[in-house]
Amino acid sequence: MGPLVIKKTHKVQCRSPRLLLFIYFVDLLPAKNGEEPTMQFLLEVVEILTNYIRKTFDRSTKVLDFHHPHQLLEGMEGFNLELSDQPESLEQILVDCRDSLKYGVRTGHPRFFNQLSTGLDIVGLAGEWLTSTANTNMFTYEIAPVFVLMEQLTLKKMREIIGWPDGEGDGIFSPGGAISNMYSVMIARYKFFPEVKTKGMAAAPRLILFTSELSHYSIKKASAALGFGTENLILLNTDERGRVIPADLEAKVIEAKQKGYVPIYVNATAGTTVYGAFDPINEIADICEKYGMWLHVDGAWGGGLLMSRKHRHKLNGVERANSVTWNPHKMMGVPLQCSAILVRERGILQGCNSMCAGYLFQPDKQYDVTYDTGDKAIQCGRHVDIFKFWLMWKAKGTVGFEQHIDKCLDLSAYLYNKIKHREGFEMVFNGEPQHTNVCFWYIPPSLRGMPDGEERRKRLHKVAPKIKAMMMESGTTMVGYQPQGDKVNFFRMVISNAAATRSDIDFLIEEIERLGHDL
Amino acid sequence: MGPLVIKKTHKVQCRSPRLLLFIYFVDLLPAKNGEEPTMQFLLEVVEILTNYIRKTFDRSTKVLDFHHPHQLLEGMEGFNLELSDQPESLEQILVDCRDSLKYGVRTGHPRFFNQLSTGLDIVGLAGEWLTSTANTNMFTYEIAPVFVLMEQLTLKKMREIIGWPDGEGDGIFSPGGAISNMYSVMIARYKFFPEVKTKGMAAAPRLILFTSELSHYSIKKASAALGFGTENLILLNTDERGRVIPADLEAKVIEAKQKGYVPIYVNATAGTTVYGAFDPINEIADICEKYGMWLHVDGAWGGGLLMSRKHRHKLNGVERANSVTWNPHKMMGVPLQCSAILVRERGILQGCNSMCAGYLFQPDKQYDVTYDTGDKAIQCGRHVDIFKFWLMWKAKGTVGFEQHIDKCLDLSAYLYNKIKHREGFEMVFNGEPQHTNVCFWYIPPSLRGMPDGEERRKRLHKVAPKIKAMMMESGTTMVGYQPQGDKVNFFRMVISNAAATRSDIDFLIEEIERLGHDL
């Protein structure tokens, strides 16, 4: 513990918060006369944040200032992660805030392409600041009246956009797509075997779930967690573009039934994580109807395309789904976390999850308690994820989301066209991507003449990790890579950042060439 | 859709944001020349928020301005919840922000006692603002280096405080106590029957879970969701103070075993939701050891007492638990959401949940990938819940949390002593409460002479809801009520708000008397 010494060094470096030098946590509200230091402290924090925001959008700023775990743990010039028994001054707290941002990653930077969630939406951010200030909980109308209604109206709007008649149905915002997908499996089970809720899986025959071999791993996590077992999740073959082959689904359903098992659930992915592929929902829906199975559409990544008249056809058939996962925090640029599970049948979410806890959901309240949402959830306390999304929708309008989606897809088409015939680049699959995912290898000059074979594969497998490591060290941009099936490590470029432009795409490609040229 | 008209009325009323009148979302960053409007907009938002904060701590402000759902849905003077196709001006967005707060509930108000999570911690709030600005995801060190390390260090510190040797073990922050408790059941199952992960519940015998009849309903939700079935969750009898009777546990374990079932898991609650009771952990641990069962301690509410040298004895034996839920967002005043599941055995969380998704958790990264936490979680994306907590710990020190806990418990003792012999008040159970929960009936004069019996019970049952409704209409304070077992509706007072003082306790009691006098 050396914070005292550290504090002294930092005092000199700090410009503005001189007045907070001898002020501590206990001097803030609710302390007597706490208003002035509270306002001063918060405004200092806001100055740090607004400076960060300004720089994030400035391309001359680095995306990150990379350090290894051991470096950060050892302490960086007065940035000490260890917790201590005694309080630090508010001045040091401001230094801690500045340093926490300094050594982090600017996910809103125009050249950050590493995840499906990128960008820093200013209105969404304001919404999140307000949400934290309101600091309430979604379980009852009683303590979150405005947010509960916003959630209800927004979910209805999303169901209308999916295409369910009059936007009827149900839904809830959950802490991420994995939990939303978990809900879908739980509800499907409840639909067919409601007695599992009370009697457990022993009350049901051997239940079988289906999902694409390229689907998100959360379906597998759900099958393990909910007691199905991962072996009872059957993986479906995909075509060269990563889309489920419907005939394979039907064959595997028949096979399972012949073994005496009971197929109950199919997940169709709308926008796979790596390829951005859209499974053919209508053909899968036909099979689900034929065999009486629940159809879930995991649109965590691709659901946003429903907002675009130009691209929503990629989810044709989604209106036939029984449930849909849709994460506004991905393609729609809403700050993390914001994920919805939408359900066509009203009441089933409540039926599946309700436990009627008397201390929370009193029936004798003075208002219409059907607005209390808590008993639908597997959570008790639930963070307010709706406000930022609602506020963005107000500020952009439906058309604003559409423009954002169209722009991102245009940019990915630009990238695709730029590299599909470029020397040193090789596409992982042929044809224009369905989503903003563009998957490619960079082939350094040293590998270009090499015949295909184990040696080339082995060397190519190391190229993307090496480039990525150099990229992070130099802090100029970030893009993801991974192997898939028999394909060695390749780059997966995704675009969901409203700040990205063609020049940033150009930069990425040139940077890959610069860093990878001598490998 | 009449937002155009509404906008016009509001333009006149708005004081400061005149300059944002003709400015829209598209004018903000990343727009060219977007920096100035962005900063102006954010500072206007901050002004709204700081005004809200100031008023929240002012006792002359109402706790809430209650409206029924239909009133808010119909629209309140220009506050229109409906989403539209076209964008609204940023000026209207500011109005929306102001109104969203206006019609909400001030959970940080010194007289808000309605939930286990109350208060508005200024440093925690600043931490949350920073978290939203950083807008990243906890699954990898790659994109959340600082936050991932903070989580690791903080969890270790929490394990040290629990009393596990050298703070060894594992853990993760999850979106709330219900999910943390769900983790505990999953891990216990994995410990004894790891094959359930792949083969499902069919691979295990009939597994039995135990929890108090007064425990949180999330244990029941977990037993339903994870495929055990709520019938295989055995509820344990409690004494008059709401604590599990260990002999009842042992008898029920023996009974289950005699039926051929396999008892695997016991949840001991440290701080029940209504009574604030602490189950006798050591005696329960003895039984768990004897019969080879997993011991989980649900300290979502009571875990905070571990920070107090004076009160931590109430959790004696917690160091013998295999897993512990502890929500800093409750008793420790951290903004929502902040809940930890802590596990004594290293590696089991990973073993239970890992699916090794190649696109996220590449083994060939340039840094030590053991810091990537994502595969331990049932979530994929995971909100950064650690920073606000870490920052508060820095600002208060361990001693600051201790002082807060001690102060809240002192206040509840003050309340208990004030009303235990006061005319018109009747305690739900005898003796000083173990936690800050004080449970009592208010008996209006009209019921005071009445003999005990069905008629009195029936009338008393209606008293708390009526007082609560009037309280909310007048907006002066908020406190929860509920029935429990054969006990008709009673008030449950809880104190976790750092802003509450004796005068607020006095106010609450007088307000109950004022509102309930003529019932």
TrEMBL record, chains A, B:
<comment type="similarity">
    <text>Belongs to the group II decarboxylase family.</text>
</comment>
<dbReference type="InterPro" id="IPR021115">
    <property type="entry name" value="Pyridoxal-P_BS"/>
</dbReference>
<dbReference type="Pfam" id="PF00282">
    <property type="entry name" value="Pyridoxal_deC"/>
</dbReference>
<dbReference type="GO" id="GO:0048786">
    <property type="term" value="C:presynaptic active zone"/>
</dbReference>
<dbReference type="GO" id="GO:0005737">
    <property type="term" value="C:cytoplasm"/>
</dbReference>
<keyword id="KW-0597">Phosphoprotein</keyword>
<dbReference type="GO" id="GO:0004351">
    <property type="term" value="F:glutamate decarboxylase activity"/>
</dbReference>
<keyword id="KW-0663">Pyridoxal phosphate</keyword>
<keyword id="KW-0456">Lyase</keyword>
<keyword id="KW-0530">Neurotransmitter biosynthesis</keyword>
<dbReference type="InterPro" id="IPR015421">
    <property type="entry name" value="PyrdxlP-dep_Trfase_major"/>
</dbReference>
<comment type="function">
    <text>Catalyzes the synthesis of the inhibitory neurotransmitter gamma-aminobutyric acid (GABA) with pyridoxal 5'-phosphate as cofactor.</text>
</comment>
<feature type="modified residue" description="N6-(pyridoxal phosphate)lysine">
    <location>
        <position position="330"/>
    </location>
</feature>
<dbReference type="GO" id="GO:0030170">
    <property type="term" value="F:pyridoxal phosphate binding"/>
</dbReference>
<dbReference type="InterPro" id="IPR002129">
    <property type="entry name" value="PyrdxlP-dep_de-COase"/>
</dbReference>
<dbReference type="GO" id="GO:0009449">
    <property type="term" value="P:gamma-aminobutyric acid biosynthetic process"/>
</dbReference>
<comment type="subunit">
    <text>Homodimer.</text>
</comment>
<keyword id="KW-0210">Decarboxylase</keyword>
<dbReference type="InterPro" id="IPR015424">
    <property type="entry name" value="PyrdxlP-dep_Trfase"/>
</dbReference>
<protein>
    <recommendedName>
        <fullName>Glutamate decarboxylase 1</fullName>
        <ecNumber>4.1.1.15</ecNumber>
    </recommendedName>
</protein>
